[in-house]
Amino acid sequence: MNVNKAILVGRLTRDPDMRTTPSGQSVATISMATNNFWTDKSGTRQERTEFHNVVLWGRLAEIAGQYLTKGQECFIEGRLQTREYTAKDGTQKKITEIVGENMQLGSRAQGAARTGGAAAGGTGAYAGASQNQAKAQAEEEIPTINLDDEKDEIKIEDVPF
């Protein structure tokens, strides 16, 4: 069995770069930064930032272009892909990027302008989810029972599930 899966949760380093292929297919290229924190042997906290290139196609690219902005959090699930191209100076180059297959929008950067739609509220709605589904998920409250507050016996009719 073979597995090629990449999962990123990070922030965009720039606004999405939108293009359209000659056949009319939408393509968005985004750059994301992820951080890794650890404590070294001397007890000093260390940090390393990695930068990732992500390519999104079709409707996912259109949604990214519409809702994503620099500094915004984003979840990307996809696969690694390496391609070769010829640079302007005529040399052959290789680049490895993540081809996004699933995306979840996160909170916007501090001070970012808000636009309409489910993604603007930072609900984390999946790109394919409707605004009503995102609103229902955000408003859903899970009932709880605190046994310390209960002085009387708990009745089965009072259990919410």
Describe the structure.
- This protein is 12% helix and 41% strand.
- The chain has 161 residues and is mainly β.
- A five-stranded mixed β-barrel has the order 1-3-4-6-5.
- The chain is extended and about 80 Å long.
What is the typical, i.e. mean, pLDDT? 80
Q: Helices and strands: which structural class?
A: mainly beta
Give the strand line-up of the largest sheet: 1-3-4-6-5
The amount of helix comes to 10-25%
Main sheet characteristics: 5 strands, mixed, barrel
Q: How many distinct folded domains?
A: 1
Rg on CA atoms, Å: 22 Å
Strand content: 35-45%
Helix and strand sequence: EEEEHEEH
Question: Could you say what the CATH topology is called?
Answer: OB fold (Dihydrolipoamide Acetyltransferase, E2P)
Shape: extended
Q: What is the highest CATH level, the class?
A: Mainly Beta
CATH superfamily: Nucleic acid-binding proteins
| Number of separate helices | 2
Summarize the structure.
With 161 residues, this protein is mainly beta. It has two helices and six strands; from the N terminus they run ββββαββα.
Name the features.
single chain, 161 residues, mainly beta, OB fold (Dihydrolipoamide Acetyltransferase, E2P), 5-stranded mixed β-barrel, 6 strands
SSE layout and pairing:
Layout: E1 6-12, E2 17-20, E3 26-39, E4 45-57, H1 58-67, E5 73-86, E6 92-105, H2 131-139
Parallel strand pairs: 4-6
Antiparallel strand pairs: 1-3, 1-5, 2-3, 3-4, 5-6
